[in-house]
Amino acid sequence: MGLFRRAAVCVIATVLVILFEVIFWDMSIELASTKVESLSHFRPNYTDALSKTILFFEGQRSGKLPPDQRMNWRSDSAIDDGQSIGVDLSGGYYDAGDNVKFGFPLAYTTTLLAWSTLEFSHMMGDEAKNAHAAIRWGTDYLLKASSQIDDNILHVQVGDTYSDHSCWQRPEDMDTLRTVATITASKPGSEVAAETAAALAASSLIFKSLDRDYSQLLLNRAIQVFEFADKYRGSYNDSVGYFACPFYCDFAGYLDELLWGALWLYKATGNEKYWNYVSTNLEWIEYDNPGEFGWDDKHAGIYVLIFKKLIQEDPSNHSIQKASTFSCLIMPESPNRIVEYSPGGLIYKSATNMQNVASLSFLLLVFSRYLESSSRTVRCGEITIQPSRLVQVARSQADYILGKNPQNMSYMTGYGDRFPQRVHHRGSSLPSVRSMPEKILCNGPESIQMKTKPNPNILVGAIVGGPNLTDVYTDDRDFFVQTEPTTYVNAPMVGVFAYFSHLQKNV
């Protein structure tokens, strides 16, 4: 997609957000003016939050569901995915409230689920096995998507977004186009391929002690996919642009994903060639913003991930400071802060904001542990910040999500007494197959769509897009920037809630 068209998409999105906030202002005022009870006795249940955060992924499953499926209002869906091209592409996750399987955020979600589990599985208790299942549901699909990598073929999306977005239909009834988007040697997509390699490599570490053969399969495939990503460089924006943009365009470029993929391969293999790849090419991102981290931008994640090795082996390396720079760009008291904070204390960067809250909170928590283990602090101008302060900020964000906020409500569906009722999610908002076996057609009758009524199926654990910069939240299904959940918001919060659950139990 050309730069002009990308800019146009951003402008249009911004205008739409403004229009929505004007249209739904009255509803927002009503919510905002609700009397807020004293939060001095706020007592979050992080263990419950952890359980629900992982359970959410079962609501996003595509394909044939297993016998132990707990989100039982969901049923089998899209089991024929890939048959049009002779490949089994069933399984995987729908990334948000629609019925498309976007390979880029799906791979990132899997990477972050694996990283969350690598860092905090010993704090998860019985939920560790559910985290493993969530990761494997992602990696099983990524193995299918990369099954033709010997021929330089990687399948990166299933579903035509325009067809899907014109239909409000539960996944079990889908009759929209299930077109497959593919990258090849002549039509490369280094960002999505390298992220897929990162997901497979990170996940191989999870299964190393659980299923050694599966772990090795993941690692071998990760090596192949990374070689493909690096050898045939290019952006999938150009190769499959119609499918990728404007939904999941890569605005940050693919060089950060190449470093990210190589870094996870180094962690999984210990092979110095991958570390040399990273250290030699860090200049690719040296002058970019180290305060960014998400499905599109891996800069801060890279600097945090390399911190421990550099501290141990090359303490004079200037890249060590980049991880500290990241935290200085986030911490409320830092003179270098670039993010905003709402009056209620929520990190705020964009309209679809909770993805920033989740990913940055996770990184702050991980970095605090790395700082602690190396007996270091962070220096932001004249201010010295202790690792414990990073933990405090991460906890403030977790608590905000769970109800310590001006709306006195949880932004996780199914958690607490007050949470979003009209989540922007097709399956959750329509009668389930169990309650209405008859097929619901595309944009069926108003009586079935129930546009103004609460969702009949609770998508337990879904963390929605969240309130705006003034802490105002509009519980309206059409206002997707605030009411739509995504897998890549929940994935890093698995680690965050695991940490605070463990802390809470051991106080």
UniProtKB/TrEMBL annotation:
This is Endoglucanase. It holds the Pfam family Glyco_hydro_9. Its EC number is 3.2.1.4. The keyword Transmembrane helix applies. The active site is at H424, D475, E484. The chain crosses the membrane at residues 7-25. PROSITE patterns: GH9_2 (PS00592), GH9_3 (PS00698). One of its GO terms (biological process) is cellulose catabolic process. Residues 46-496 form the Glycoside hydrolase family domain.
